[in-house]
Structures are given as C-alpha cells and as structure tokens.
Amino acid sequence: MFKDKDIVCFLGDSITAGGLYMAEVYQTLRKKYKIKCFNCGVSGGTAKKAIEYLHSFCLHYNPSIVITMFGINDIERWLLEEKHKNFPGREELLRSAIDIYKDCYERIICEIKTSGAEAVICIPVPYDEESEGAEENLHCQHRLDECGEFLYSLAKKYDCFVVDYKKAMKPLLSEGVISPDRVHPTARGYHIMAQTFLYEVGEIPNIDTETEFEFEAWNKERFDAEQELHTLRYVEYCDIFEAGWLQNKSLEEKKALARKKFDAIENKTTFVPRAYLDYIKRADIMDRLIGDVIKKTVF
C-alpha cells in the first residue's frame, strides 16, 4: 500500500487524536519508506463535523492516503444514559444519528477520492460492554455494529481498503485494551491497533501482542508537539464549533466565548475547562504549533 514520498493523514475522533497508534505505525513505516504521517484526529470529532474541516485540516496536506475512523461520537451515545431516558425526541434522534453518519461518511470518502488520495476505512474500536466498573454501561455496541456493516458496504462501493479494529480487539476486552471509560484504548489497546493495522496492510508478518511500543527520539519530539495542538483543536473544531469556527468569528470572539464557557463550569479540574484555558492562552500561536509539527515530521 505504501511507497516513498507518500503523505498519510489519519482522520478521526479522540481515539485517533490520542496519537499513540499512529505514532507506532509511523515509526514502523519510516524504517522502510521516506514517508510523512499527520494526525488529523480531533477530540469530539464526528463524520458530520469532519466535513467542515476536512479540506482545511486534512486535505491541505495533499495526502496520498487518508486513514479514516469515526463512529463512537456519531451514534449519540449520551442519549443512552439513564438520566436522558426521557429526553425530548430521544428515539427520533437516535434513529437519525446513524443515517446522518452514513451520509456524512460517504461524503468524506467522496471528497478524499476526488482529491486524488486513496481512502482507508477503519471499523471502529469496540465499546466495552463486558468490564465491570463505575462508568455507566450504555450497551451501545449494536449501534457501532450497524455503523461497521455500513462501512464494509461503503468500502466495497468505493474500492477502499478496510482495517477492522472491532474484530481484532473485541476478543481482548477482558485483557485491558479499553480504558475504564469504555471508549478509549489503553496504551496496550493502542499497541494492538497499530499492530493490527500494520499486519492488515502487509507491513509485518505477525501481530505482536506481548511487547510494548517504545518511542524513538525523533518520533517522541513529533508526538509531543502534535499533542500540544489537540486541546486547541477540540475547542476550535468540536466544542465551540457551531458558535465559533463555523460562523467565522474572530479569534478574540472565540476566546471570549471560551472564557464565558469556562466561567460557567463549577468543577474546573476536568478536561473541558482545562481545554478552554489552554485555548484562551495559546490559540494565538496555533499556526506556529502546526508549523512545529510539520517541521518535526521530516524524512
């Protein structure tokens, strides 16, 4: 699949944005190819939201291959929480969510193909319905399964390669591959993802589930620079998305909105308020941070 001078973008939600599986894939590919990989994952991302920033945040790299994975945020799993069982229009919203997902994912694949890049479709990581824990079990894997069935048909329609993370990871749920939030992979889970990907595309002969991934120095520098951007991207593209970025508000207006949202939160120790503060402090240098990532993504 890969060759020298390929530019590969990984497009997805927070599971992609976490960066560990792409880092391992990239480190392995760099031993064989003169290749560049960019992490275009955004925490909170969905197929619907990604359409809006697909060109400005992914296709502007002029990639030859785009690895896509969306699903867990698209199924509106929050509506399955006990506290939302009487939410107005709940059933209709749940029904329409997957239809929106299907339509938007197909639009993404069409845009990627039109740009001249090849698209790889990844079947989403499984939701952990098996483990005991404090996090409410939403039993939403059946909704992800419907997404997965659609993705296989989409791949057939557009002649896309498929990597199935559900198939690889579901048998390992009891082995701690998914974190206690039931959604995000652990470090071992990310390693299984990377190994699965590399095996499925023919870059390694076997999946190694025993050893741990270790960063090489160049890759750790790139990864650290990349991770600095992710809270900014979350706020810019997925949190104040409709009120901010989509409506072309000025940077100062968006920072003011972030401050207003930060002030309204009582518990300021969680990820979201920390992201607001980081955005307020660092959004001015976002272009510089992006440039730093590009500079560190070298042959």
Brief summary of the model shown:
With 299 residues, the chain is an alpha/beta fold. It contains 12 helices and 5 strands. Helices cover 49% and strands 9% of the residues.
Notes on the protein architecture:
With 299 residues, this protein is an alpha/beta fold. The chain has two domains: 7-213, Rossmann fold; 215-299, no CATH class. The protein has twelve helices and five strands. The protein has helices spanning 14-17, 20-29, 47-57, 90-114, 141-158, 165-169, 187-200, 217-228, 230-239, 251-264, 271-282, 286-296, and strands at residues 7-12, 36-41, 65-69, 118-123, 161-164.
Q: Could you tell me the CATH topology label of the largest domain.
A: Rossmann fold
Helix proportion: 40-55%
Main pleated sheet: 5 strands, parallel
Strand order of the largest sheet: 2-1-3-4-5
CATH homologous superfamily designation of the largest domain:
SGNH hydrolase
Which structural category fits the helices and strands?
A: alpha/beta
Strand and helix map with partners:
Blueprint: E1 7-12, H1 14-17, H2 20-29, E2 36-41, H3 47-57, E3 65-69, H4 90-114, E4 118-123, H5 141-158, E5 161-164, H6 165-169, H7 187-200, H8 217-228, H9 230-239, H10 251-264, H11 271-282, H12 286-296
Parallel strand pairs: 1-2, 1-3, 3-4, 4-5
Helix pairs in contact: 2-7, 3-4, 4-5, 8-12, 9-11, 10-11
